[in-house]
Amino acid sequence: MRKVSLACLAMVLAATSFPAFAAEKPADSAEAKKGDDAKGDELPMLPAPKSIKQSAVIGGKTVNYVATVGALPIKDEKGKTIGEVVYTAYTVPGAPTSRPVTFAFNGGPGAASVYLNLGAIGPKRVQFGAQGDAPSDPAVLHDNPNSWLDFTDLVFIDPIGTGFSRSRVDAEETKKAFYTSENDIKYLSRVVYDWLNQNGRLTSRKYLSGESYGGYRVPRLAYYLQTQMGVGISGMTLVSPYLDPPAIGEDDALSPLPWMINLPAMVAGHFERQGNLSEASMAPVEQYIRTQYVQDFLAGPQDKAATDRLSAKVAELTGLDPALVRRMDGRVDIGTYLREIRRDQGLVGSVYDSNFTAYDPFPASARPQYSDPLLTTLIAPTTSAMVDFVTRQVGWKVDARYNALSYEVNNVWERDDSDNPVKDLRQAISIDPKMTVDIVHGWDDLSCPYFGSRLIMSQMPQFGRPDRVRLHMYPGGHMFYSRTDSGAALRRDILESYRAAS
Fold this sequence. Notes:
Blueprint: H1 6-9, H2 30-39, E1 50-58, E2 61-75, E3 81-91, E4 101-105, H3 114-121, E5 124-125, E6 142-143, E7 153-158, E8 166-167, H4 171-178, H5 181-198, E9 206-211, H6 213-229, E10 235-239, H7 245-248, H8 257-274, H9 279-299, H10 304-318, H11 322-327, H12 334-340, E11 347-349, E12 357-359, H13 375-394, H14 407-412, H15 421-431, E13 436-442, H16 450-458, E14 469-474, H17 484-501
Parallel strand pairs: 4-7, 4-9, 9-10, 10-13, 13-14
Antiparallel strand pairs: 1-2, 2-3, 3-7, 3-8, 5-6, 11-12
Helix pairs in contact: 5-6, 6-15, 8-9, 9-10
């Protein structure tokens, strides 16, 4: 099986790996000792849910809400608890049960939901993901004016092996039960159902939101919930989604699709650096890529005139050295682009946002020897802020490691090449004419480029018309919401969708 690398096949070069859910038993816990006596080294169950009242200024108004952290058990067919999934829920007390509730997932596989929670749509946020942010910055939470909590309750779910969520079986059973794309959908759908049932919210309007590989999960979750769990979904928001793995991979040397999909994001990065990024400036670029670019690409390097023409145009659009682009026959890979656009400054760009940069630690090396500039700055602020929120502010005490991002989960993940989130997306909206879908991207994202979603939408049947399946682009990259203006624009667009469905 081809492995799915972190956040949409990004070229993450970090060599460090770490345990996915290596939670330690409290040495002085009576419950732990009892568990050890009865079950050998079995972990004690995670604590009961804990809630606190908070408030935040969102959309210019104060919103009072209840924040709850808890865990839901995952059981096998014999009723044995084989895992515990931790959630963070934000609910407005006294609201009618018809109030929408949105379940949010991040991706990886191996990412906790902290990025959407504390970066995009939760009521509090910690600063990360913008140029100039550093891992050593104070991990202090502030009100998030771009939160969605004023128009929907929010439930952030951490899949097994991420956050504090953990398996209760051995490594082989864990992989089989949780780390396959098929079983991932099954147990997470049950988590959604169980939360709704336990909280009396099965009659609420229900939405799903997923970022990156979470955007791969969400259409499949929606269809499974509809057809297997009896839970209808009113809408989905796919944030920088990983929707069509074969299209953005490079396994097929004949296909122009990976190059077609990557190039617009490279051009957008260049246009932004020039102060000329807009829908209007990108429209002729997209038209060129659909037409002359494909024709010249398919002519192949043996056609010198076609390759000269293609290389010159790619160099013009990306701002790269024309001689370099010609040596590459106009086929500029992501790694080369990110390292060459600022080579004279000794800086490298991030695959998640080509205009988020850091110094190249080995600028004279013939091959890249650096970790992704953006990915490596996220771990410290998100982990520190989330652990402080859960254990100190909410008071949900747990003696365990918190994994904002688990390379171990990603490394052992098994994906079925036959699964297809676009197929499930089509099926989900075909059987529910009221369901809406918002697909949202940052222009500069090279890990899950927006043009892939543009091409997918172009192939939609008539029932997937633009008023039902909408594509929005914003300045920024994979985590475009870390830019205040882009986060505000996202909030406006999604609020409009929720209001239209009410």
